[in-house]
Amino acid sequence: MDAFLSFHASGFWLAMALILGIAALSAKPYLPSAAQPFLMPAYWVLTPYLALIAGGVSPRLMGLASINWAVSLRIGVGLALGLLAFALLARAASTWTGASPEKRAARPDLGQWLDSLGLIGLCGAEEFFWSFLRGATAELFVTLSVTLDASGYWAVWLAALLAAPMATLTQPTTMHRLVKLAILAMTSVLFFYTYNFWLCWALHALSWMLLLSAHPRTRQPHLTKRSRSE
After folding, report:
1. How many domains does the chain have?
2. Which of 109, 140, 150, 194 is at a distance of 20 to 30 A from 116, taking alpha carbons?
3. What is the pTM of this model?
4. Domain that holds residue 217
């Protein structure tokens, strides 16, 4: 039970992530509309940050430190490109079967660039949380002396199961939920081979923008104050 009761244990922070996630989702409808878009990103960032400074999870197991960049660039980039190619095929199929695309401006304005940067930041915050779940689950396996073949593999996919409900509940449409689950699966595969948060963030952001760009009306799940007023 020490794995779940100690402030410095990964199990404690996994339990806290579950409790805080339920609390955040329950409190969101009662917050002012201006504060609602910031609630989940704050949860995604602050929960892992507190676990890190408490020693409840290893930066290495989260893919933040001691990264073997030679392996990441040799295996991870090739794998990421393959997964992106799959995302491009899915996007092309979605565009082909969907309605005719809307006309878009030849040059994005400043607001569109800022929206894209905000979207990349949101993907990074969510991927940071997913990496925390992967690292904390792997550390929990070590603490509990779980003896499984390829325990790192099972830790990654158990973390994906833990992340899936939150990943879907924070999205407004079925399309967003399916895309987010696909990205969770893709980044889980990439993380297993590389233990590199930064590559997973890049894949997450690129896949999110590619897959949802075929559905411009539903591209931004977290509306900014500027976009809501238009």
Report:
1. 1
2. 194
3. 0.83
4. 58-229
